């Protein structure tokens, strides 16, 4: 269908706040195609048509209401759904129904994502110092990994993720043993712009200008091909338009054995959640 419409996406996010404040719940029905399903977060990434009064045609993640059964919905399905927007600007999908599942098998194969217990792709990355590394270099450590890009203008997207990681970094640093057994990795989805010097400057802003902390929190960029591999593995959707990138969210916890343990999106985890999950992995080793 259509590529991301970045400017419309940013405008729509603003509209969530402006149109939601002080007004009652609103409903918008639409048709779309499921790009991916994330069962752990009860989320659908949908490539949808124009939704009059709400949002232009684009691809984006939607949380789904807890009472909606997604067991019969898969990537590649054409669906109808209703967006419910509340007065606080929060939104979720209800009334999700599959209208065409004939492309399901092809789409599932193409958008295959990892499930807990499966090994992550061992792709090469370049860090903020220009050093090449692989995810396997961190075997033996519990790794928290997320995707960002330094030019991201949305405070609830990349800046929020980096702020959450900064809080996790600060908490883990309280225990030297815990600090040495864990690793944070931010992966840029903007290989063209986010060069090592750019990542270094960006990272220092979140590390209190303390470059020694790069040993524990790496800011990295993959090649476009390796980024595609990671995006597929973690159900990350991204698209560039007019020097901005619209994207979904994916933060993952990787075990010391290099296997996926857990995945979150930006709206459903806190610093305490991440630290507790990392500590649980560490405690299980002992």
Task: Describe what is shown at a glance.
The chain has 286 residues and is α+β, with helices and mostly antiparallel strands. It contains seven helices and 14 strands.
Main attributes of the structure:
286 residues, alpha+beta, OB fold (Dihydrolipoamide Acetyltransferase, E2P), Glutaredoxin, seven-stranded mixed β-sheet, five-stranded antiparallel β-sheet, 7 helices, 27% helix, 30% strand
Task: Report on this structure.
The chain is α+β, with helices and mostly antiparallel strands and 286 residues long. It has two domains: 6-110, OB fold (Dihydrolipoamide Acetyltransferase, E2P) (Beta Barrel); 124-285, Glutaredoxin, CATH 3.40.30.10. It is built from seven helices and 14 strands. The protein has a seven-stranded mixed sheet with strand order 7-6-10-9-8-13-14. Helix 3 (158-172) packs across helix 7 (271-285). The model is unreliable at 1-22 and 107-111 (pLDDT under 50).
């Amino acid at each position: 269908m259509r590529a991301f419409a970045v400017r419309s996406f940013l405008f729509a996010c603003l509209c969530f706040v402006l149109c939601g404040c002080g007004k009652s719940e609103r409903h918008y029905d639409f048709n779309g195609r499921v790009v991916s399903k994330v069962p752990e977060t009860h989320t659908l990434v949908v490539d949808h048509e124009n939704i009059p009064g709400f949002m232009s045609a684009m691809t984006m993640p939607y949380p789904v209401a807890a009472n909606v059964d997604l067991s019969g919905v898969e990537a590649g399905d054409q669906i109808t759904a209703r967006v419910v927007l509340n007065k606080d600007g929060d939104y979720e999908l209800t009334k999700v129904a599959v209208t065409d599942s004939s492309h399901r098998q092809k789409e599932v194969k193409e958008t295959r994502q990892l499930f807990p217990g499966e090994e992550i792709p061992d792709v090469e990355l370049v860090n903020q110092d220009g050093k090449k590394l692989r995810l396997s270099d961190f075997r033996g450590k519990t790794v928290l990994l997320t995707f960002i890009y330094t030019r991201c203008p949305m405070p609830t997207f990349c800046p929020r993720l980096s702020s959450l990681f900064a809080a996790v970094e600060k908490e883990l640093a309280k225990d030297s043993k815990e600090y040495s057994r864990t690793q944070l990795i931010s992966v840029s989805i903007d290989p063209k712009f986010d060069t090592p010097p750019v990542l270094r400057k960006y990272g220092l802003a979140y590390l209190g200008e303390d470059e020694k902390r790069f040993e524990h929190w790496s800011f990295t960029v993959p090649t476009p091909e390796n980024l595609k591999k990671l995006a597929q593995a973690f159900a990350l959707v991204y698209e560039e338009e007019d020097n901005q990138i619209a994207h979904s969210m994916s933060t993952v916890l990787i075990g010391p054995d290099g296997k996926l343990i857990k995945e979150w999106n930006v709206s459903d985890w806190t610093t305490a959640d991440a630290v507790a999950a990392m500590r649980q992995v560490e405690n299980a080793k002992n």
